[in-house]
Amino acid sequence: MDCTTASVKFAVKEVKSPINHVLITATNTGSKACRIYGYPSLALSENAQAETARIGESKPQAVVTLDRGATAYAGLITATLDRNSETKVTTSSIGVALHGPDEADLTTEDGVDVPVPGGSLYVEEDNAQVTYWQDDPNDALAW
């Protein structure tokens, strides 16, 4: 069974390290195990023109399967260290949608808005990058 936004609860979590990163979590709240494909499709602001770039090297060997209650993790790099960006925004939530089994499928359904910690997150949309879903938070933050 494939994970859907109806069977998964998303959260955005602050991390102390590395700098300019947050962790996106997807916890299976359904009654059966599900597969979560690829990487999260993110809308970092209301004005987002394109999907957030993915870090191709972060692709795991296998699709992540979430048992009931299990969590998958994706790391989001929110900004560069020099903060040199044309698209600086502060957002109170991130739109998250899921990909289907074929990564070419943009998303399988409408996304959900997920509030950010503290109600405000600085993001450089042109520099932001997201990892593929991982089964270990350390793997998601290694990029």
Give your account of this protein's structure.
There is one protein chain. The protein is mainly β and 143 residues long. The protein has one domain: Immunoglobulin-like. The protein has one helix and eleven strands. The strands form three sheets. It has a five-stranded mixed β-sheet with strand order 1-2-6-11-4. Strands 5-3-8-9 form a four-stranded antiparallel β-sheet, with no helix packed on it. A hairpin with a 6-residue loop joins β1 and β2. The longest helix is centred in the C-terminal third of the chain and has 4 residues. The protein is globular.
Q: Main traits of this protein?
A:
4-stranded antiparallel β-sheet; 143 residues; mainly beta; 1 helix; globular; 5-stranded mixed β-sheet; Immunoglobulin-like; 11 strands
